[in-house]
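The instructor's notes for this session suggest beginning with a concrete chain rather than abstract definitions. Hand out the sequence below and ask the class to guess, before any prediction is shown, which regions might be ordered.
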Amino acid sequence: MLTQTYCTKEAGIARPIRENCTLLCLWKVKDQNQLKRIHDEIGNDISLEKFDQMLEYATSKLYGFLTVDFCPKKPEYAFRSNFNEYLA
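After discussion, reveal the predicted structure:
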């Protein structure tokens, strides 16, 4: 599913779909409220500051995005820059 809005009152991805997502790809997000909401929903295994750093790093590259894997083979494989560079 592709959407420009993660979560709003009128639009975005429905909560049941967000809760059952196994792979999330994030491009640059300007709305800090959306970032905080995404961070809250992915879990508190990582600090908001670290999450912001990884998102900034991943999106600083040409066509870059942050991949969040909710079912990684190893815990350290949960965050990636694009699909191939694991971030810890």
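Then share the key points. The mean pLDDT is 85. The chain has three helices and four strands.
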